[in-house]
Write a structure and sequence with these properties.
- The chain is α+β, with helices and mostly antiparallel strands and 121 residues long.
- The protein has a single domain, classed as 3-Layer(aba) Sandwich (Trna Endonuclease, Chain: A, domain 1), CATH 3.40.1350.
- Helices cover 30% and strands 35% of the residues.
- It contains 2 helices and 5 strands; from the N terminus they run H-E-E-E-H-E-E.
- The longest helix has 19 residues, at 3-21.
- Pfam families: UPF0102 (PF02021).
Length: 121
């Protein structure tokens, strides 16, 4: 596995551990719908939380959350809709971003709640 893929996996592990330490229940990790993927699907306080995780070694080329494009958001929304239908979920949904920065644990983690809303097309 390429080093950047290993770092990404470590970042997702750190993000999941962070969420669990804050009382979130992890429903799925790396859930796929065709070619689309939801990094983490969690639940807390009667709410479904879809979390996009962005891991970077540093902020030399910008903040990790800046890598989440409108196209990525659209794909997350489409996948979330599929997820909700497949598992027959009737809960409010929130979209969060967790940024993980560093080259090895302990990473710097930032949790951005309600990072975006579903766009109106």
């Amino acid at each position: 596995m390429a080093k950047h893929n290993e770092l990404g996996k470590e970042g997702e592990n750190a993000a999941a551990e962070y969420l669990m330490s804050k009382g979130y229940s992890i429903r799925h990790r790396n859930w796929h719908s065709g070619k689309r993927e939801l990094d983490i699907v969690a639940q807390k306080d009667g709410e479904l939380i879809v979390v996009e995780v962005k891991t970077r070694r540093n902020e030399e080329f910008g903040k990790p959350e800046e890598a989440i494009t409108d196209r990525k958001i659209r794909n997350i929304i489409i996948s979330t809709d599929t997820y909700i239908k497949r598992f027959e979920i009737d809960l409010p949904v929130r979209f969060d971003i967790i940024t993980v920065t560093g080259t090895e644990p302990p990473f710097h983690i930032e949790h951005i709640q309600e990072a975006f809303l579903p766009p109106v097309w």
